[in-house]
Design goal:
By secondary structure, this protein is α/β, with parallel strands linked by helices. It has one domain (about 30-115): Ribonuclease Z/Hydroxyacylglutathione hydrolase-like (Metallo-beta-lactamase, Chain A, 4-Layer Sandwich). The chain has helices at about 10-15, 90-100, and strands at about 5, 25, 30-35, 35-45, 55, 60-70, 105-110. The protein has a five-stranded mixed beta sheet, with no helix packed on it. A two-stranded parallel sheet has the order 1-2. β1, α1 and β2 form a beta-alpha-beta unit. The longest helix has 11 residues, at about 90-100.
Length: about 120
């Protein structure tokens, strides 16, 4: 893996699974620039997975929530074998507070929407 970055929790999980590891890690938050666009990667807390991160592009007010959120037509929460279901509601509340300016929310599955997806 060249130039790979992962949340420290993800690296721990990958090591337990004897999977290839990212070269760099971050704890809780990482700000980076991709083709002149500022992107904030953030781990809020457990939810759909133990290591679910979100990506926030403040300039465009776009939130990529991964599998933490599902599109409006998705009827199943999906595989929760790695979930932290007791933390999920609080994590969603924190996400709403932190990224309440989002105009576009991109879920892990289904069509993008707005804050109604949160």
């Amino acid at each position: 893996m060249r130039d790979s970055i992962a949340l420290n929790k993800t690296i721990e999980l990958m090591a337990q699974a004897n999977a290839p590891l990212a070269k760099k890690s971050f704890v809780d938050k990482l700000n980076l620039t991709v083709r002149e666009i500022n992107v904030e990667l953030s781990y809020i807390s457990g939810g759909h997975t133990r290591d679910n991160i979100v990506a926030w592009i403040s300039e465009y007010r776009v939130l990529f929530a991964g599998c933490m959120l599902k599109g409006p037509n998705v009827k199943s929460i999906g595989n929760t074998s790695d979930a932290e279901l007791t933390k999920y509601p609080k994590t969603l509340d924190t996400m709403r507070q932190r990224y309440g300016e989002a105009v576009i929310v991109v879920p892990g599955h289904g069509e993008p929407g707005g804050l109604e997806l949160t």
